[in-house]
Amino acid sequence: MVKPSEFTPETGKLIAEMMAEAFDPNEVNVVTGGPDVGQAFSALPFDHMIFTGATGIARHIMAAAAKNLVPVTLELGGKSPTVISRSANLPQTMERIMSGKCINAGQVCIAPDYLMVPEESLDEVVSLAQSIVGEMYPTLLDNPQYTSVINKRHHDRLSGYIADAEHRGLQVIPINPADESFDTSSTHKMPPTLVINPDDEASCMQEEMFGPVLPIKTYRSFDDTIDYINSHPRPLAAYYFGTDAAEENAFIKRTTSGGVCVNDVMFHMLQKDLPFGGVGPSGMGAYHGIEGFKTFSHAKSVYKQTLSFNVSKLGGFLPPYGAATEKAIKQQVKR
Fold first, then answer.
1. Is residue 301 a part of any domain in this protein?
2. Catalytic residue among 75, 208, 247, 248
3. In the chain, which end has fewer C-beta atoms inside a 10 angstrom radius, N or C?
4. Which domain holds residue 102?
5. Which of 109, 247, 248, 261 is catalytic?
């Protein structure tokens, strides 16, 4: 059974139509509707339930599932960090980061959420971000290849992050190649926007971004990036750009995240033989490939006993207990 998001009703309708054409309703059934339908759906006594979405909603899903002791897999999100090493090729790095950040206007659970760059490279990183976005999207408002924010509520949320940053006196850099007016637009489009060196109290550093706003923090020592990541909730993804083997090894082994991608963003999710999932507030459980088969099936053990002799008696399990029992105990006890 599938319950698509109520935020995308046309997509949900299309999924329902496609599934109805390919499957009998007893095999695959798509249920559409709003929060009330989702609440009823999550209360059903499934063998297993998977939820993809926000951490706050996941808590309600998990609570509903607990009433029926339904096991859950949660694919959530979090603030996925992207660390740029001093050894990185900056033009190549920024092309890959901005390409990933602008896909679906950043509305992807594993989109890079914030950058950590060497302090001396900040100006070049900003300049590259501006030029690369301009090459990918010469215009934004009427460009069908650049996505709108899903609805007004989320547009207002993201706009609030930017307003908070401006109120704090932070440098905010909209990337608007054609200098278009978004204020008078009837769409929910928003230009890719950089926020420079926000502190942890800034709104843009509090919640998963899920939009085209990209905070950039600077660092002096590479170890500072690891300490910063480890002092915050576990992210769904973590990204490292560079060619320093010692740094790469430290980044992978000394941080905890659902997954890691080196010298690109999001591609680890596309490798279907790698498990995909979160850890802590970014989710629980993993799927894709054999991991998905294990997650969504139940391994039922079956044992057949011989009829030729009494195994219990031979093993010393059958009263009255005696020498065979003592022998079995001694075999199991480690001195």
1. no
2. 75
3. C
4. 81-265
5. 109
